[in-house]
């Protein structure tokens, strides 16, 4: 079975984006094995500490390297990528061999899908930015700006994400396209 690595761009315990990742995982059940990337101990990117590669960076890179595809569930902060998540992506964009600037990054060529849960615009801002950023990093994006959910007043009030049947069908289509791409 193929391995999917989930990147949730929120550290919040009851994160809507973590719940969205759970929906994706449920849709992949029996078709892929899903694990979650723990990026909480990554240092802030500083070129002075790239060599030797910090332990947390090496671990995160190894997890990304060994998966068949990455699925991102991203919050939208000020129409953009949250800082912690951007820091993670920047680490993944750097040459794997710190002594060879021409060596490929961990991210290059990886299959990736974008999704997000947020306010009225359904994270269109951050998904557009991620599409641009991940494309620049040489990742193989499935479904361009992916799938977004606009949280309802009930969701904001309860901290519980629930998808409509239509949303689940739409998300299912992206899941199918993503799994199709990593099967190739
Ligand atoms: C600094 C900051 C900026 C935010 N900016 C936006 C925004 O531009 N668009 C949006 O839809 N929500 C915005 N929000 C609200 C988030 O959608 C909300 O906090 C959401 O719960 C984050 O996702 P999470 O539940 O997975 O942590 C912002 C929240 C924070 C903390």
Rg, alpha carbons: 16 Å
Major sheet, described briefly? 5 strands, parallel
Question: What number of domains?
Answer: 1
Overall structural class, as computed from helix and strand content, comes to alpha/beta
What string, H for helix and E for strand, traces the elements in order? EHEHEHEHEHH
Q: What is the overall number of helices?
A: 6
Give the averaged pLDDT, no decimals: 98
Q: Distance between termini? A: 13 Å
The CATH superfamily is identified as: Flavodoxin domain
CATH level 3 topology = Rossmann fold
Question: What CATH first level would be assigned?
Answer: Alpha Beta
Low-pLDDT regions:
none
Q: Helicity range of the residues?
A: 25-40%
What bound compounds does this protein have? Answer: flavin mononucleotide
Strand content: 15-25%
**Strands of the biggest beta sheet: in what spatial order?**
2-1-3-4-5
How many E strands? 5
The shape, in one word, is globular
CATH level-two architecture: 3-Layer(aba) Sandwich
């Amino acid at each position: 079975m193929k391995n999917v690595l989930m990147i949730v761009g929120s550290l919040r315990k009851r994160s809507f984006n973590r719940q969205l990742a759970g929906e994706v995982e449920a849709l992949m059940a029996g078709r892929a094995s899903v694990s979650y990337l723990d990026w909480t101990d990554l240092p802030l990117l500083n070129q002075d500490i790239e060599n030797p590669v910090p332990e947390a960076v090496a671990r995160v890179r190894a997890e990304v390297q060994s998966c068949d595809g990455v699925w991102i569930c991203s919050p939208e902060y000020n129409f953009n990528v949250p800082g912690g998540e951007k820091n993670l992506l920047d680490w993944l964009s750097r040459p794997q061999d710190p002594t060879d600037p021409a060596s490929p990054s961990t991210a290059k060529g990886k299959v990736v899908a974008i999704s997000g849960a947020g306010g009225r615009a359904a994270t269109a801002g951050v998904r557009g930015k991620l599409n641009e950023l991940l494309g620049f990093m040489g990742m193989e994006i499935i479904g361009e700006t992916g799938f977004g959910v606009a949280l309802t007043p009930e969701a904001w009030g309860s901290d519980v994400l629930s998808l409509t049947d239509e949303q689940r069908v739409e998300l299912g289509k992206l899941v199918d396209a993503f799994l199709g791409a990593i099967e190739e």
